[in-house]
Design goal:
The complex is a heteropentamer, with 1 copy of chain A (about 325 residues), 2 copies of chain B (about 260 residues) and 2 copies of chain D (about 300 residues). In chain A, about 40% of the residues lie in helices and about 20% in strands. With about 325 residues, chain A is of the alpha/beta class. In chain B, about 30% of the residues lie in helices and about 25% in strands. Chain B has a domain of about 60 residues. The relative contact order of chain B is 0.16. The structure holds adenosine-5'-triphosphate (ATP) (2 copies) and magnesium ion (2 copies).
Amino acid sequence: QDAKPKPKLIVGTQDAGFPHIADASGAYKDAPYEVEWAVLPGPAAQFPALYSKSVDIGWLGDTSLILEQAKSTTPWTPDTAPLRIVAGWRNFDPQFRQLVTVVRNSADVKSLADLRGKKWAFNYGGINHLQYVLSLVKAGLQESDIEPVQLGDGFQAAAAFNAGRTEVYSGDFVRVKELVDKGEARILLNGDDLGIPGLTVYATRQDVLQDPERKKQLADFLERGRKLWAWYDANLPAVAKIYVDKVKYTPEKAEAQAGRNKSQFVPIDAKLLKEEQNIADVLFERGFIKNKVDVNAGFSGDYNVFTIGGAAAQ
Amino acid sequence: MSSASPALHPLDPQPAGAPTDMAVHLRDVRRVFSGREVLGGIDLSIPPGEFVALLGHSGTGKTTILRILSGLDRADAGTVQVPTARSVVFQEPRLVPAKRVWQNVVIGHDQNRPARETAIAALREVGLGQHVDAWPKTLSGGEAQRVALARALAVEPDLLLLDEPFASLDALTRMRMHDLVAQLWERHHPAVVLVTHDVDEAIVLADRIIVLNAGRITLDVRVNLSKPRLRTDARFGTLRQRLLDELGVISQPARHD
Amino acid sequence: MSSASPALHPLDPQPAGAPTDMAVHLRDVRRVFSGREVLGGIDLSIPPGEFVALLGHSGTGKTTILRILSGLDRADAGTVQVPTARSVVFQEPRLVPAKRVWQNVVIGHDQNRPARETAIAALREVGLGQHVDAWPKTLSGGEAQRVALARALAVEPDLLLLDEPFASLDALTRMRMHDLVAQLWERHHPAVVLVTHDVDEAIVLADRIIVLNAGRITLDVRVNLSKPRLRTDARFGTLRQRLLDELGVISQPARHD
Amino acid sequence: MTDALATLAEGASVARSRAPAGGRISRSPQLQDLSPGEARSTRWRQASPWQRRATRLLVPVLILAAWQFVSEAGLVSTYVLPPPTAILAAFHELIVTGELQSAIVTSSARALSGLVIGGSLGLALGLFAGLWKLGDDVFDGPMQMLRMVPSIALIPLFIVWFGINETAKIALIITATAFPIYLNTYAGVRGIDNKLIEAGIIFGLDHKKLARRIILPTALPSILVGLRYSAGSSLLALVAAEQINARSGIGYILTIANQNQRVDIIIAGIIVYALLGLALAAFMTFVERLFLPWRTDIVLG
Amino acid sequence: MTDALATLAEGASVARSRAPAGGRISRSPQLQDLSPGEARSTRWRQASPWQRRATRLLVPVLILAAWQFVSEAGLVSTYVLPPPTAILAAFHELIVTGELQSAIVTSSARALSGLVIGGSLGLALGLFAGLWKLGDDVFDGPMQMLRMVPSIALIPLFIVWFGINETAKIALIITATAFPIYLNTYAGVRGIDNKLIEAGIIFGLDHKKLARRIILPTALPSILVGLRYSAGSSLLALVAAEQINARSGIGYILTIANQNQRVDIIIAGIIVYALLGLALAAFMTFVERLFLPWRTDIVLG
Ligand SMILES: Nc1ncnc2c1ncn2[C@@H]1O[C@H](COP(=O)(O)OP(=O)(O)OP(=O)(O)O)[C@@H](O)[C@H]1O
Ligand SMILES: Nc1ncnc2c1ncn2[C@@H]1O[C@H](COP(=O)(O)OP(=O)(O)OP(=O)(O)O)[C@@H](O)[C@H]1O
Ligand SMILES: [Mg+2]
Ligand SMILES: [Mg+2]
């Protein structure tokens, strides 16, 4: 009886395990449209896929869109922004720190001021970089006060720190966890200390937001997303198993990964926008972006009702 | 010669004043290599079907003339008119090392079964029936030269250019090759230009002998001896002597029979 | 010959039974190419300083013998003993296209100023003083052959191997080259093996003439004529005839003076 | 011929001792025995096939040993370089789940399609630019420019042009493979001896036949070097190509492992690449033997 | 020679019409005028240098025009492919800040040091493996494996081994450049005509002199193709190398732009690479003219 094929909603992700988790949760099983996942690591692939309509919903870090917005010569407004964030999520469990600034004990850093002159590994762009920049701000230092060691990705930065080539590291915690556990290094600052929202977000194009049919699908997709996170929370071992089976994590790391990725949607509200605006301003002041950004244009709170539910919607 | 006046080539209108009854027509042809004039004004007309031998010291420009006649080189000045259908035996064998001997012989033909038969026949004629499927690199010097000869004779040119084709052949094989060239010439009378260093060979084969010296023609004689030409013939000896003198060879007693 | 019994080579102990007074010693040498026996048991001893000419049809194995003597090819069976110091004129010029003519001549020397002088002197001797700095590709066939000759004569070998070194030279240049080789031989008496297709050339130059036929030596004669050898000499004619008969060439009247 | 040249080594080493000195009138020649079957100095070329095979394995085995030593001595953190045993375990994991097998199949298919298209393109353009000035003028510039574009930088553009499916991946591989064959074809064609071309023209070959009968066969050794290179590039390009919405493949495994910090899998992946490289080399040697039967090798020892 | 061959085209196109048919006794030959200076069919080879230069520019200009059109017509979002004017602005930005100039200097220095070391290595190993079986056995395997290692995957390892300074960057470039020269040297050496080597040995050249006087000069065309490739690779390897603690360089600019999604700068960077590729090609052509004066080109038209 189902002669007409279901419409397709193509959703980008940067987590190769996520499509499997989504399947396992059954959250999208009986949706009136078909959800197709596209694994595209990094914003450099997500953006063109969005723009070229290869995907309808992209998967980004929250600062990625700020950077994208800053590039535009014509300022974005809520109506002209080509892309808008419609939902964001993060983990609130303090046990699963994501972003950290870590120092080697041998470096003899007692206070933030002692960071002066140290070799500091980080990777450019994205959230790890934000951790580095805001750590500097918090310590009251300029880049010229330290010896920055900039690397291509977080893994390289961690390798440099783990190999003893630098004394300080900013970035993802798990990559240096072993050193911290062994007592050779300690956490100096974490993301929350620095007011980094650290959201992963869904962003979509204006044309999706303006098409009534697509809008309905988007709303439904986000509402089912909430179910997915609920299932995830209740099935951590199953998720860990997916990470082991499908994307080759070691069991220990899979467990950590499953725990760390356990998330809930965050309302796109004034509080969040304030934090985001702060980040945009710091990036501008420090010269990392060329234009001032009004984050209201890139964030849409219209779908809070679906991600958070009626209670949080006002 | 039995040839009629040749048809004009449709693509190349005859330059005014060029004789139309000649197979080869060179007028005041010059060639300069890096400032040195190698050919200094060559005038030469060869009627269709004439067999011309070209003598001259090493480095006087014989190969250069042949290259211009073949179209492989372009004169710097002068008029050059040659038949469209030309065939060449180069001074080196020039076999494609990546092709077997028989494929080299019929390199210009459609390479099918009949072509292979043609090649085998041609190779048998030059005494290489055993080397049909060999690679060129495994041939002896004389064998390679004969393959090149077979290749040149497997087509039917109006102008056949032979650059020392028998240089590395022994006396017996050389005589067989003379016969072969004579046969081919009998069959359809191409104009032939044969470069050789062997004065006797020139007299035996050619209608006309030209001596080149320092890039100019210094002698142009007709060989008015009936065939087969015997070295015992007094006129043979006289002609040989004249050519050797022209070439500056001090007479060897043995050459005066 | 003026040579004493040669010293033993320190690295290669003399095989038992091999004569020590010979420059070249081949015993029952065989060579097979892809199943075909090209050399079928060659026995040949050449004392130091002897000038040997090697005659034979195209493809009988002359070059193969020279390659074995030069050390470039290894016999399949038999004994081979040759002097350490050898020099070769190959059947093709084999010049390095990336090196100028003079560098090719002294390819084995330290390439400094004196080497260039040596090269220029050698090139003058072969009549190529003008082509010292030319690239090999710009040479005519005979010029390239003469460069190869100059290269071979610029060293002082105990065994000189010449594979048709005069094939593409005109009569005059050829005679000059004969003189050059004779001079070199006078100077320090190397053993020489000269492959040629010119019977007269063999008689004029060699002490001893060997005819090869289908991979075997079928004639080995000494040339007992005093030098300079005149073609008018009756014994010259007799020897020539004997060689031509051995090579299977039907007597040409002109050859019977 | 190989043997012929091998024998030369001796002749040469002795001939060298000849002094090109003054004008002695007579001399007693130093003799040399070149008889077959003589006991000669043992040289590598006389090593048995087994000896040679052993040597081929020597370097890899040495590397492995050094690696295990470095790991066990704790000279390098296992984060960065896990011990060989850990890599073995990673291989086990990849093979048991069937991932490696399916990756090789998927990736090979991608690499091969890209290689076939890119290679043909490179060959055609290389012939064209090598033989005709017009081709040279029109295509050489763009090719020289194209080859300098880092394929990573092309990903966003290719996503836009070709989408996120197979087309984009194969397009990336094509750009990586076309150039080496182009360059080597071009050079191979330019390196052909004029004399052969001249002979071909005299014997009535038109351009097409000239290309097929003389130029292609004669330039083939060079073209095959290009193919060797392209085949390698096609596999390497998978690392970039399989970042675009891939669910399997060797490049995918590497990318994911990189994101997971599974150094053991990264190294296993590198080893798979290395082995593919060896297999490729062996295959190309076979292809060369097959297509270049007329070539004789020179080997000095 | 070039001219000589160019003239052939005509001869050939006519000669082709000759029928290899039966045994006519007499025939009137079709004649052809080969006089110099005759008006001949206009062919590309007779184009003036200006015409040829214009053609060389044609394709790039066409691409530029198509690009501007596509951008203006709105066929591709400017986010993905900004119009040429935007790229110009990006260039302006890079030049005004002095970034581009310093990047070219820094990167060239890095690329050159890597190229010199890697190239020498590849050349030495290529000669060794090409000429000696022992070298072939010991080095060919590892080289064939090494070339398949994706350089991105080597970065963490190199950080540990070589640190975070220039050494690690240059080491990465070395791995990228050694292989192409190795492969082409190896092939070039294997392709040398036996006959020349034989002559060299007969005239008393030991292995070293043989390599210097005959093998190297004769294999040089092939080695220069390898150099062409390696020079390109050295620049491309910067994209990976300059991820390691770099603050300037072309690769750095590209990486940063990629992470910032500054498509305009990425494209500007690609253009810089393309121009470097052209400059490299021109330079290599110059080098080839300089080092291969004995070579004659064949060009069919
Ligand atoms: N491409 C070239 N560049 C420079 N010089 C050349 C070139 N081709 C030929 N020559 C020179 O022109 C002269 C004539 O050469 P050509 O080959 O015509 O001589 P040849 O009469 O055939 O001599 P041989 O009998 O030795 O073959 C020679 O001195 C040669 O060096
Ligand atoms: N490498 C090889 N492989 C196969 N056959 C070969 C090889 N080298 C030579 N031959 C064959 O051995 C035979 C003898 O060759 P060789 O070169 O010794 O003859 P030649 O007497 O020098 O003849 P020419 O006077 O023509 O130079 C020839 O038939 C040749 O085809
Ligand atoms: Mg000539
Ligand atoms: Mg021979």
